Amino acid sequence: DLRFLREYQPEGRSVDFQNVDPFIGCIVANGKATLRELKTAYTLEDAFLLWEVIVTSNFNQWLATKEAMRK
Fold this sequence. Notes:
Elements: H1 22-29, H2 35-40, H3 44-70
Helix pairs in contact: 1-3
């Protein structure tokens, strides 16, 4: 269930990837795989699993920060 992504808004300005799909860019930028690995070694399902790890970790960190700010 990805509805939680609607609530998460990164702070400050950001720039989108210009020459790479954002899904692929997210995986590569977070160091979970290289572009070469995504092209040759991983399946699309693998890529989605890597993306899930990134998104879940980032969201949990955001929740922890939000909770710490309340205290």
